[in-house]
Amino acid sequence: MQDKDSWSGRFSEPVAELVKRYTASAGFDHKLAMFDIQGSRAHAQMLAACDIISRQDLSEIQRGLAQIENEIIAGNFVWSLELEDVHLNIEKRLTALVGDAGKRLHTGRSRNDQVATDVRLYLRSAIDELAVLLKNVQGALLDLASLHTNTIMPGFTHLQVAQPITFAHHLMAYFEMLKRDADRLQDCRKRVNRLPLGAAALAGTSYPVKREYVAELLGFDSVCENSLDAVSDRDFAIEFTACAALIMTHLSRFSEELILWMNPRFGFIDIADRFCTGSSIMPQKKNPDVPELVRGKTGRVNGHLVALLTLMKGQPLAYNKDNQEDKEPLFDTVETLVQTLSIYADMITGIKANPEAMRNAAMQGYATATDMADYLVKKGVPFRDAHEAVALAVRFAEQRGCDLSDLGLAELRQFSLLIEEDVYQVLTLEGSIASRNHTGATSPQQVAAAIARARTSISE
Ligand code: ARG
Fold first, then answer.
1. In this structure, is residue 267 part of a structural domain?
2. Residue 42 belongs to a domain with what CATH number?
3. Last residue of a domain, which of 329, 360, 391?
4. Is a pLDDT exceeding 90 seen at residue 2?
5. What pTM, to 2 d.p., does this model score?
6. Ligand 1, from 109, 111, 120, 322: best to mutate by most atoms within 8 Å of Cβ?
7. Residues 144, 268: one domain?
8. Would you say residue 298 lies in a domain?
9. Considering the domain boundaries, does residue 422 fall inside one?
């Protein structure tokens, strides 16, 4: 005999096969199984504490759930699309194992508040895992940066040589981005960590439940205040995905730079072979596949964000089946992020910088032109006039095919008689970076201090 649907009493014919497959989520939401069991344990414990079910029922439920948990861990649990979703699969098995007690578990609960609880538990645990992985990437950045506080490279704007900076300073920019990302995740966690259970289908339940007790058992900070909101909104998942999209976006920018820097025309870095692949036709190739894929997967996570926003935008209160579609984008976002952060920390550790190539690049493109203008300003020339004088000097040097520092004093004095021998100090790369010596700037001293502060911030 075919299994009866859980609501079969109301229906005069069975659900069509195609519809069953279309509406089932067991194929993917079984990822929530452990959180579903965790939620059910707490719910049952509360039901017993409030005398809604008996102690005997509670211990039967606990025994059954423990066995189901073992079956899932051992890979013996059979997921059936016939049973629609993770919740009904587990409930059915529980009833098979412990009889009527299993049928009492769903008292005062609906799959609507159940699934919202499961997703929140899942996401909370994902956020905690991601927080550690983010820190690892930050730690790897710090390790690399501390080797390069004196390594000079060109800083770019518009991808044109702008001013000299240190490689460590450049790396620390990404540290800052990831620090904000970590803060954002923690802030999002506060809104994830609230309990929907007790909202039941939408209006609450007529049983004398104690929601605060369930919240405490599950480690939630508090309960959702409105039952309609509790079962229907997925803003916490959208917010998480937005945080994830920003993390990916930051790593995508970094990846783009790694790819450029690895190109022999830059030659600034080398990425360890284990993160690269060769070409099946061109023997000379070493391709930066990992950063390229990170850049590519950013599109996928951004897509998930848009999917979730779109999923929510037209829904009337309260729960609608649309929400079942929140899971795959959310799971994929978490998995993409976990993999990306794990691989990234390791990849950064395998980056080898080439300070000579960086320095050579900084020597080209008149990176110290601003320093020369500042030099004139300090001698009393208004900044706009100094800018103009140096622009003419750059044009002159360009025609001669040399750097500003290669021009003789007499040549430089054509552009301002205030220029003296000491100008050569500011025209050197070292002089330029050393002079930018305040909080947030690129001097080796400041960057070393920034690295030290950063280390404390991630060890807290
Ligand atoms: N599988 C459903 C989901 O993911 C569970 C809730 C179903 N609720 C309902 N009333 N059909 O959203």
1. yes
2. 1.10.275.10
3. 360
4. no
5. 0.94
6. 111
7. yes
8. yes
9. yes
Q: Enter the tokens of residue 208.
A: 């004398």
Q: Residue 112: CB within 6 Å of ligand 1? A: yes
């950064």: which residue's tokens? Answer: 348
Q: Supply the pLDDT for residue 279.
A: 80
Closest atom of ligand 1 to 201 CA is 10
Same domain, 145 and 227: yes
Provide the annotated active-site residues. Answer: 158, 279
DSSP 121-146: HHHHHHHHHHHHHHHHHHHHHHHHHH
* Domain endpoint, select from 306, 335, 360: 360
Q: What residue numbers bound the domain in which 75 lies? A: 13-107
| Structure tokens, 160 | 């044109």
What are the pLDDT digits (tens) for 222-260? Answer: 999 999 999 999 999 999 999 999 999 999 999 999 999
Per-residue pLDDT tens digits for 76-125: 999 999 999 999 999 999 999 999 999 999 999 999 999 999 999 999 99
- What is the Å distance from ligand 1's center to 116 Cα? 9
SS percent in the chain: helix, strand, coil, step 5? 65, 5, 25
Ligand 1, pocket-test mutation among 118, 324, 328, most atoms within 8 A of CB: 324
With respect to residue 344, please indicate whether it lies within any of the assigned structural domains.
Answer: yes
Whether residue 321 has its Cβ less than 6 Å from ligand 1: yes
Is the CB–ligand 1 distance for residue 115 below 6 Å?
yes
CA 215 to chain centre: 27
Angle 31-81-1 from CA coordinates, rounded to 5°: 140
